[in-house]
Amino acid sequence: MPTSATPIDLNTQSTQEPQKRVRRSKAQWKKLLEEYAISELAQTKFCQKHHIATSSLWKWQKYFASQPAASDFIDITESLAKTPSPDSDSPQDDHWQCDLMFFPESQVKIWLYAKPTDMRRSFTGLAAMAKNLIGEEPLSGNFFVFINRRQTQLKILYFDRSGFCIWAKRLEEGRFNYNKSAGEKQLLSQKSGI
């Protein structure tokens, strides 16, 4: 049974222009996802309505699900300022009994190890360097500063009466400057910075 086909003119152009790719910000994607959550449309229908790929919607759903919500963070500054009362029976009050110390006391010394240090070292390795190479006791509460070969990273080891702390800094631009000719073990004052 023969069928009649309509001829197609290949010289005429389509009146429908292709969709331009729209770049959306994180805020726009978040708004779209909120709209999707309250709409009762299926994912494919929603994506067709808003001219987005289903894979893009899925990717942004996954991205925002991995981000911590504002309610995931707890403000502990008030809890740290409080000292638990001795007659309190609440186990939550006993949780913040230790004092935090972030700044050195006046008698604390700051030692700089001027030779390049492997920044992969952590607590044990830096404490061993403080004891064996600098010749100071790492449990003394003094600060021990270590710098990498390129002078773009430093680590500071410190014992705060309850355990070791390591503070790390990486410069995006520039280098740490210090007196390399003063020897491999240098005692820093607050005026002689790095």
Can you tell me about this structure?
This protein is α+β, with helices and mostly antiparallel strands. Helix 5 links the parallel strand 1 and strand 2. The protein is 26% helix and 14% strand. The longest helix is centred in the first third of the chain and has 13 residues.
Structural class by sheet pairing and helices? alpha+beta
Radius of gyration: 31 Å
Termini separation comes to 91 Å
| Shape category | elongated
Low-pLDDT stretches: 71-83, 91-102
Nearest-integer average pLDDT: 75
What portion of residues belong to β-strands? 5-15%
User: What is the strand arrangement across the widest sheet?
Assistant: 4-3-2-1-5
For the report, how would you describe the main beta sheet?
5 strands, mixed
List the secondary-structure elements in sequence, H or E.
HHHHEHEEEE
How many strands in all? Answer: 5
Keywords:
5 helices; alpha+beta; 194 residues; elongated
Would you spell out the secondary-structure blueprint of this structure?
Elements: H1 26-38, H2 43-50, H3 54-66, H4 77-81, E1 110-113, H5 123-134, E2 143-147, E3 153-159, E4 164-170, E5 185-188
Parallel strand pairs: 1-2
Antiparallel strand pairs: 1-5, 2-3, 3-4
